[in-house]
Design a protein that fits this description.
The protein is an alpha+beta fold. The chain has helices at residues 16-19, 41-45, 66-74, 102-118, 145-148, 150-160, 162-169; strands at residues 2-8, 24-32, 52-59, 84-85, 88-89, 95-99, 128-131, 135-137. It is built from 7 helices and 8 strands. α3 runs parallel beside α4 (102-118). The longest helix has 17 residues, at 102-118. It starts with a strand and ends with a helix.
Length: 172
């Protein structure tokens, strides 16, 4: 088993795409990269702790390689937006790939460069690639939100503009 950590804006929207894949053993919503120990959602939501909302994925690389995780990550986000993602604004909603090994770092950097070279986007790719930091699981109500609060999740996602962006920029 290996770990992968991704920040793609609201962590509620980053669980389902990975959860549906073979070889994924767990996905935890949480916080990483900040200065406060054991932060709460209320603290992180202020944008003052330095944390990213993120997901930590435990996966079986022989079944679902890290490169496939990267490929799936990119198509969930707007990699050109440094101010957050979609309707969620602020540093806590920035995008980042947090690498756990030197191999993950190299693969992440290559995938970012490949995306930049593709010229898919006119603006630069601003998603950070950073060493994995302490990961703090979010409160229980945020875990598997898309399953537990289907109606609220669907409404939030609909209002966010994420799906329209994905359709317009990745599905063509």
């Amino acid at each position: 088993m290996e770990k992968a950590t991704f920040a793609g804006g609201c962590f509620w929207c980053m669980v389902q795409p990975f959860d549906e894949q073979p070889g994924i053993h767990s996905i935890i919503s949480g916080y990483t990269g900040g200065s406060v120990q054991d932060p709460t959602y209320k603290q992180v939501k202020t944008g003052e702790t330095g944390h990213y909302e993120a997901v930590e994925i435990v996966f079986e690389p022989d079944v679902f390689p890290y490169q496939k995780l990267l490929d799936l990550f990119w198509v969930q986000i707007d990699p050109t937006d440094a101010g957050g993602q979609f309707q969620d604004r602020g540093d806590q909603y920035r995008t980042a790939i947090f690498y756990h090994t030197e191999e993950q770092k190299q693969l992440a950097e290559q995938s970012k460069q490949h995306l930049e070279d593709s010229k898919r986007f006119a603006k630069p790719i601003v998603t950070d690639i950073l060493p994995a930091d302490t990961f703090f699981p979010a409160e229980e109500e945020h875990q598997d939100f898309y399953k537990k609060e289907r109606k609220a999740y669907k409404e939030d996602r609909k209002q966010s503009g994420r799906d329209e962006f994905i359709e317009e920029n990745w599905n063509n």
